[in-house]
Structure to design on (40 residues):
């Protein structure tokens, strides 16, 4: 049970650390798409 809870904590912290990074990448991609659309 202890190993299981540690595993959940690791997943939780990895999501907390990766979520802002992923959102920054998606915002950059959206800006690129907007520029491409505005060119047409």
């Amino acid at each position: 049970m202890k190993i299981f809870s540690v595993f959940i904590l690791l997943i939780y912290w990895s999501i907390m650390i990766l979520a802002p990074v992923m959102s920054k990448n998606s915002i950059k991609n959206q800006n690129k798409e907007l520029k491409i659309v505005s060119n047409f």
About this structure: The chain has one helix and no strands.
